[in-house]
Design a protein that fits this description.
By secondary structure, the chain is mostly helical. It has 2 domains: 9-68, Arc Repressor Mutant, subunit A, CATH 1.10.10.60; 70-206, Orthogonal Bundle (Tetracycline Repressor, domain 2). The chain has helices at residues 14-34, 41-48, 52-58, 62-81, 91-107, 115-123, 128-155, 164-185, 189-206. The chain is elongated, with a radius of gyration of 19 Å. The model is unreliable at 1-8 (pLDDT under 50).
């Protein structure tokens, strides 16, 4: 058994890997719609079109499947942002990324919130392994932002005493708060305002570098 509670994927055939991915994708969709507590393994089995024994072949228990869903959602969140995440080393790149995020929420009518943040809110106080899995997912996201800001700092676009790591963390925090408010208000404006405030701050720093 792998360390994260799933069966060792290195031993899976291509068909086995496809079946596992189908189970995880079905679980991710149901959990995003209903939450972890309201989603049963039977629900997931039916949605994925597999038997109960197949579910347990790939996952030791529901907790193991949930951790796989967290990894799946982290990957999906990053994939949604695509190459924009690779160009956060300029103000123009940051604003293009902001526009993508705000536009995506507008297209969803601000429903659902952040898949990763929602999982973290539900699981952080009841499943420590899940909490750490969510933290790793956020860590990957933060690292993308940090890489861009560190590149700006290294070029001299940010003042020497500016901390790109702190700016990246603040940007991610603003993003998550903006997503939550956008969800509850059904309005992308809080997300736009939060990200604009951070990017304006970064731009102001470039003007004194």
């Amino acid at each position: 058994m792998a360390g994260n509670g799933t069966r060792d994927q290195r031993r899976l055939t291509r068909r086995g890997q496809e079946t596992r991915e189908r189970i995880v994708a079905a679980a991710a969709e149901l959990i995003f719609e209903r939450g972890v507590a309201e989603t049963t393994l039977e629900d997931i089995r039916a949605a994925a079109g597999v038997s109960g024994s197949q579910v347990y072949h790939y996952f030791a228990d529901k907790q193991a499947l949930v951790r796989a869903v967290i990894d799946h959602q982290a990957e999906a969140v990053l994939a949604t942002q695509g190459t924009r995440l690779d160009h956060l080393d300029t103000i123009a790149g940051l604003r293009a990324w902001r526009d993508l995020l705000v536009g995506h929420q507008r297209s969803l009518e601000c429903r659902g919130g952040c898949p990763l943040g929602t999982l973290g809110a539900e699981l952080a106080e009841i499943d420590d392994a899940a909490r750490m899995a969510v933290a790793r997912g956020f860590g990957r996201w933060e690292a993308k932002i940090r890489d861009g800001l560190r590149a700006m700092h290294a070029r001299g676009d940010l003042p020497a005493d500016a901390d790109p790591d702190d700016l990246a963390l603040a940007t991610l925090a603003a993003l998550q708060g903006g997503l939550l408010l956008a969800q509850v208000q059904r309005d992308p404006r809080p997300l736009a305002v939060a990200l604009d405030a951070m990017i304006d701050r970064i731009q102001a720093l470039t003007e004194v570098a």
